[in-house]
């Protein structure tokens, strides 16, 4: 009996599912080991029991909550796929403004008649989550590692150290040397410091490490001239959902 | 800039080094080196420093023009070639029958651009990884790698001159010294010799090599002998400096990952995607990471950065030194150069050494005879001849009741005075009673509040109050002997519930000679202790007993088996009181006497307070009777 795998999405850009689809060559090795029974992009089956459910996107509406709980009820393991599902991701950028104000701004005066929206929350706020593939978008290699672990019945483990370590292993220059703030010191590793390698900085899309050294790190940011409010803004892009969760 | 020559470290050649029969030198031009690289590429993977995007890195070199031989220390260490991250230990095949596949031989490789400190680092890796059962994965790469050294210029973070790692005489196959018109190549091993003969066969040895002595200067330095590192750390396991740097550490692991001698690793399995096989891999790890010391069940033996940073220092400078007589640090500065938190090894080590050196400084000669200055804050007349003085000391002192101070009036001298107040480790004020009978004591009587007084001490061994706990206490005071017992009595009253009945027998010449009369009245009228008084010059005032203190022992209601007696007074009193105490049933172990003598130095040196073989100022002045009964000079004949 092959494990039955489903992919679901909520509020997101669906970039993580596209990353999965881009792994078509690698997936050929694994497709014999599993049965993909639900993937909106490529399949139309519904309602069956699942061994693994990959859920992308954050939860905003009451019907989303209902649907998510239904997925949870029929899935042996539920995996948060991507930052939107894991920490609410950039969807949580809206968390400092009233929802009604946002609806009016986007949809005009008639918006409230059509849309009953809430604050974007991660999956974990509503159902138990068995595992996660962090990132925005996810890293294809890490997804394969997690999927493989699930298929053989092993608990997937994410790195417990920070992106900083991967940066050093790749011999990349530190962005702080050019006075650019980077969230690598408190962000979970696993992406191989991809953004720094491409000339950008870490923005924390993978969420924080389990025990971030926030105190000494904020002290360093203050030495680089950031105010408390600016530090909070830096973290809001991907991690406020996590803070709201706590 | 500071520069100093450290003690040369012991040479410990690795297995790949075979000393050449004769040390040979060759002169090479840059074009010779280019040809060498091109030729080597046919048989070796050639690695060297090259500049990419303004940054030097050790990398594969196929075009000799890319090879840089003069480059700054800021380059990741050659460790990644000898002990790589993600090293495959072996492959396994799954299916019905599990099969293991041996790893293939290591790639022959030449590393140009080994700075002296990195060559020393290879020695340290050899020590650690060849100890006991050799790590064969490391050994294979080590033996397959040719090491070619080049000189360097230290930058702001280097401190190799402190550790002797700025120079090296062996441990390389070739070393290229920069000279005016090219390079002077020094052969370190037979392999290096053969390399030149095979790839540059036309080269001829230089008969008389002239190499200017290289002098390097580092801005940072360890300002004490490297051999002191392990002993210094041996004293500071619980030092607050670890919390100080631990609170700054962000736990990124850069210090370990960049270090040329750190080799701690993790081992894990990686499966092929098709699950038909996989490999066991070794990856670098860091003692700064959360999972490094975490065990099943969630316990963590070094749970925070304070513990982890301490461990990093101890391993580098103490644990591995003790194993290999070589510090595991080569002063390359990579850890502090890349530390976002600014933790600097030299700052930490220098501050620890300085602190210990300061603590061990020999004080100036005679310092133990110099008094501290105390302020006179209160003077009170007790009797016609005695005054109470309260002094504020430079800092609070701890002592047992019965201890004394040596008090100075400059120009007059110094005298021992028993402390009359109770010990209070947080109180800088202390009380003394001064009887005017000599030059110094009369000079003290003339002082006013605010005067400065010299004070040494406290000295002496007082009453062991903890041995009185739970027992009845009989205090026998004669005349000025009450001063000593007041200190003891106040100590007892401060923790009254710890003791049984407390009785004070006080004898004096006359009522007017009673000390602390206000205290005596309060104690007598209170319920905390039982007081009896006697005077030799009988007087109807106070209603006290006439006669000497022995009269107070009549009808004494006490159970000696559960009591202790403290006696303080003139020596003549002991001849009469002691037999009464023993007659009541007191044992010699539970009778304590004050044997104050003429103490001059307080340090057991001047000999004036000596009683047979003991000095009162050190062993006393408070003695259990059992300790002194054999001393014929203890009690006045």
UniProtKB/TrEMBL annotation, chain A:
Localisation per UniProt entry: Periplasm
Residue ranges annotated for the NADH:ubiquinone oxidoreductase-like 20kDa subunit domain, each copy included: 13-150
UniProt-listed Gene3D superfamilies: NADH:ubiquinone oxidoreductase-like, 20kDa subunit (3.40.50.700)
InterPro entries: Hydrogenase_assoc-protein, NADH_UbQ_OxRdtase-like_20kDa, NiFe_Hase_small_N_sf
Main localization category: periplasm
Keyword Nucleotide-binding applies: no
Keywords linked to the UniProt accession: Oxidoreductase, Periplasm
Pfam families linked: Oxidored_q6
GO molecular function per UniProt: iron-sulfur cluster binding; oxidoreductase activity
GO CC, alphabetical: periplasmic space
Record PANTHER family: COENZYME F420-REDUCING HYDROGENASE, GAMMA SUBUNIT (PTHR42845), HYDROGENASE SMALL SUBUNIT (PTHR42845:SF1)
This protein's name: Coenzyme F420-reducing hydrogenase gamma subunit
Organism in which the protein naturally occurs: Geothermobacter ehrlichii
């Amino acid at each position: 009996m092959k494990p039955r795998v489903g992919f679901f999405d909520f509020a997101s850009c669906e970039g993580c599912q596209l990353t999965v689809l881009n792994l078509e060559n690698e997936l050929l090795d694994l497709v014999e080991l599993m049965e993909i029974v639900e993937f909106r992009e490529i399949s139309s089956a519904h309602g069956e029991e699942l061994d693994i459910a990959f859920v992308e996107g954050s939860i905003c509406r009451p019907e989303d909550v209902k649907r998510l709980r239904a997925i949870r009820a029929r899935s042996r393991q539920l995996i948060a796929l991507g930052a939107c599902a894991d920490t609410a991701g950039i969807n949580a950028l809206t968390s400092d403004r009233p929802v009604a104000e946002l609806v009016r701004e986007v949809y005009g005066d008639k918006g409230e008649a059509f849309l009953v929206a809430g604050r974007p929350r991660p999956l974990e706020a509503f159902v138990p989550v068995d595992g996660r593939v962090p990132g925005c978008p996810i890293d294809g290699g890490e997804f394969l590692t997690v999927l493989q672990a699930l298929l053989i019945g092993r608990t997937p483990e994410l790195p417990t150290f920070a992106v900083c370590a991967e940066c050093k292993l790749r011999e990349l220059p530190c962005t702080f040397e050019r006075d650019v703030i980077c969230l690598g010191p408190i962000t979970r590793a696993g992406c191989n410091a991809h953004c720094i390698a491409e000339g950008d900085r870490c923005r924390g899309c993978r969420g924080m490490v389990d025990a971030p050294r926030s105190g000494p790190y904020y002290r360093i940011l203050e030495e680089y001239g950031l105010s408390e409010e600016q530090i909070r803004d830096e973290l809001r892009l991907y991690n406020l959902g996590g803070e709201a969760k706590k | 800039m500071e520069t100093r020559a450290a003690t040369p470290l012991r040479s410990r050649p690795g297995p790949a080094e075979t000393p050449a029969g004769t040390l040979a030198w060759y002169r090479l031009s840059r074009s010779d080196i280019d040809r060498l690289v091109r030729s080597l590429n046919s048989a070796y993977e050639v690695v060297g420093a090259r500049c990419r995007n303004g940054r030097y890195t050790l990398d594969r070199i196929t075009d000799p023009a890319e090879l840089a031989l003069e480059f700054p220390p800021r380059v990741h260490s050659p460790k990644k070639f000898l002990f790589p991250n993600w090293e495959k230990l072996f492959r396994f095949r799954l299916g019905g029958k599990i099969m293991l596949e041996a790893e293939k031989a290591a790639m022959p490789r030449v590393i140009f651009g080994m700075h002296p400190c990195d060559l020393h680092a290879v020695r340290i890796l050899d020590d650690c990884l060849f100890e006991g059962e050799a790590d064969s994965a490391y050994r294979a790469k080590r033996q397959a790698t040719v090491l070619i050294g080049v000189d360097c210029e230290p930058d702001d973070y280097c401190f190799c001159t402190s550790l002797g790692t700025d120079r090296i005489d062996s441990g390389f196959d070739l070393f290229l010294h920069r000279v005016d018109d090219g390079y002077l190549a020094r052969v370190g091993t037979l392999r290096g010799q053969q390399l030149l003969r095979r790839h540059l066969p036309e080269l001829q040895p230089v008969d008389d090599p002239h190499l200017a002595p290289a002098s390097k200067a580092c801005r940072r330095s360890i300002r004490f002998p490297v051999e002191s590192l392990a002993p210094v750390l041996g004293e500071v396991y619980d030092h607050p400096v670890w919390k100080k740097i631990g609170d700054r550490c962000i736990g990124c692991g850069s210090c370990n990952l960049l270090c040329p001698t750190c080799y701690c690793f993790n081992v894990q399995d990686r499966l092929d995607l098709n699950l038909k096989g996989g490999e066991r891999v070794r990856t670098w790890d860091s003692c700064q990471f959360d999972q490094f010391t975490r065990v099943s069940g969630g316990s963590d033996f070094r749970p925070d950065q304070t513990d982890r940073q301490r461990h990093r220092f101890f391993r580098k400078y103490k644990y591995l030194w003790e194993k290999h007589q070589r510090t595991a640090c080569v002063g390359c500065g990579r850890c502090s150069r890349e530390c976002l938190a600014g933790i600097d090894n030299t700052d930490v080590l220098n501050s620890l050494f300085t602190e210990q050196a300061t603590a061990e400084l020999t004080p100036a000669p005679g310092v133990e005879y110099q008094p501290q200055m105390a302020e006179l804050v209160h003077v009170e007349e007790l009797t016609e001849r005695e005054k109470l003085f309260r002094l504020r000391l430079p800092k609070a002192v701890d002592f047992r009741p019965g201890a004394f101070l040596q008090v100075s009036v400059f120009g007059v001298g110094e005298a021992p005075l028993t402390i009359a107040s109770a010990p209070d480790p947080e109180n800088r004020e202390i009380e003394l009673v001064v009887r005017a009978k000599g030059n110094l004591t009369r000079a003290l009587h003339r002082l006013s509040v605010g005067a400065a007084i010299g004070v040494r001490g406290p000295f002496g061994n007082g009453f062991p109050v903890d041995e009185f706990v739970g027992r009845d206490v009989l205090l026998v005071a004669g005349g000025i002997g009450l001063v000593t017992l007041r200190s003891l009595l106040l100590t007892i009253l401060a923790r009254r519930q710890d003791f049984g009945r407390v009785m004070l027998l006080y004898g004096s010449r006359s009522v007017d000679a009673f000390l602390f009369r206000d205290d005596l009245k309060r104690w007598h009228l209170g319920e905390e202790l039982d007081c009896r008084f006697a005077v030799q010059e009988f007087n109807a005032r106070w209603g006290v007993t006439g006669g000497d203190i022995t009269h107070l022992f009549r009808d004494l209601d006490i159970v000696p088996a559960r009591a202790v007696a403290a006696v303080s007074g003139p020596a003549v009193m002991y001849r009469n009181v002691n037999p009464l105490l023993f007659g009541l049933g007191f044992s010699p172990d539970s009778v304590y006497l004050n044997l104050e003598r003429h103490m001059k130095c307080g340090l057991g040196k001047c000999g004036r307070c000596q009683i047979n073989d003991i000095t009162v100022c050190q062993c006393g002045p408070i003695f259990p009777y059992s300790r002194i009964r054999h001393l014929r000079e203890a009690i006045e004949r």
